[in-house]
Amino acid sequence: MMSNTILHKADARGHANHGWLNSYHTFSFGGFYNPQSMNFGALRVLNDDTVSGGRGFGDHPHDNMEIISIPLDGDLEHEDSMGNKAIIRKGDIQAMSAGTGIYHSEKNAHENELVKFLQIWIYPNQKNVQPRYDQITLNLNDRHNRLQQILSPNADDEGVWIYQNAWFHIGKLDSGLSTTYNLKGGANNGVYAFVLSGDVAVNGQQLNTRDGFGLWDVDQIEITANSETEILLMEVPMKF
């Protein structure tokens, strides 16, 4: 099967430095607009955020969007209109279904440390659902030289769940290790690979830290780490 691909190099991303927030946008967001980079199927936002000590995002609204936060370093303090108050740390995954509407705030839980996290938005497959909050702590050892599932459409499966036919995996691979990812969602789905760190080949495409690479019309992808590598795979519907 001949695949289609799109490559987003790390240095081609949108960039906004607000002092307290240093943010890189893979897809059009805020003041960054690129008509060739609006989304990858149902994946609408992939923001790579660093927040200064004690600072954060004030109370703000969302609706009809699945919002996933993946902390990479530091501790993120969350509060929302559903009554949830939580700290999310590296190894945690947070998912919210905004549905009919929520307000939430996110801030760095510490005054003297940076917090780094990925903010990801997915278009849902159901609108106007009752808002919901989901947070879990994962065993980081379970991603060593394998792909650890961190998100799915199923509440009884591994990871958090969302209202979309999507699966996320993270792998932390030793240099020289190869592995295969088989798509789970059928012919309509594609995979967006985002390199958290290291150098890796995905279906022969050489990628480096913070590069993104999307593939669709494909049944599986081959991943080979050329250095110690951490990679996030986001399988999402291409039509929704």
From TrEMBL:
SUPFAM superfamilies: RmlC-like cupins. Fe cation binds at residues 60, 62, 104, 106. Residues 13-122 form the Pirin N-terminal domain. Keywords: Iron, Metal-binding. The keyword Transmembrane does not apply. Its cofactor is Fe cation. One of its GO terms (molecular function) is metal ion binding. Residues 150-236 form the Quercetin 2,3-dioxygenase C-terminal cupin domain. The keyword Secreted does not apply. Binds 1 Fe cation per subunit. It holds the Pfam family Pirin. InterPro entries: Pirin, Pirin_N_dom, Quercetinase_C, RmlC-like_jellyroll, RmlC_Cupin_sf. Belongs to the pirin family. This is Pirin family protein. It comes from Mucilaginibacter galii. The lineage of its organism: Bacteria, Pseudomonadati, Bacteroidota, Sphingobacteriia, Sphingobacteriales.
